Amino acid sequence: MNWNKPWFQFSILLLLAFVWGSSFILMKIGLKSFTSEQAAGIRMLTASLVLLPYSIKNLKFLQRKDLVNLLIAGFIGSFIPAFLFTKAQTQIDSALAGMLNSMTPIFTLIIGMLFYKTKMKWLQITGLILGFFGAIGLITSGQDLSFGKINSYALLIVLATVFYGININVVKARLSHLSGVQITSLAFFFTGPAALIYLATTDFEPVLASANWPIHFLALCTLGIIGTALAMLLMNSLIRYASAVYASSVTYIIPVFAICWGVLDGEKINVLHISCMVLILLGVYLINRKK
Question: Is Cell inner membrane found in the keyword set (predicted)?
Fold first, then answer.
């Protein structure tokens, strides 16, 4: 694959945005029968099971010096945020969740500059700001978003974006000698047992009382396989070849696909939507500009 080519990196970024943009729908479906904790646990367990053959195959690449960083990639980068997001979405609307999720590149930059000596040029910082405001504009356009409704659950998503920022910098700085498949499969090798143990302690009787629980379970399995396992394989591969901030800018593009889903559902697109999309794409372009 042409991971070093800017056009290929951008294509992966678009694919990730599409996958994660669709994940919110699957999460919402799963929560109709399962608790937020069960939904997150099923998501992580499914992803770990799908990756298990690769985990076993890549155990020979597991070194003691990488253990802590792989645990960070698994638990800080995926496991804990999965629980934080599902819990938060039981109390806040998707528009606010999307807005807060767009803080990921900012935290990625701050953590990178503070702890990993990340250097950013003013052109890239400008791109970061443009992308952020474009994402916020796209998320809030046409939404009845009341900031008075913001509660402590919103802080869970903010914490998740901080964790994402930590994980992206760790993968970029400490695990770049491993491939994306190796990083992801070895990281999920540790999260799988934790998810299984947690699910074994929960009560599934109320779930089985729901008539449509198999459909909701299938949605969570799809979320785990595509929205977690496949997505993290692509994300960790992208981080190796692109800058950490550029990889995290996927959260700016996610609202673009949310609008596209709305158009397919009969919603109308206006000049503000188009302007915000252009702003986002310009911002992402400037972030990854080499010169």
Answer: no
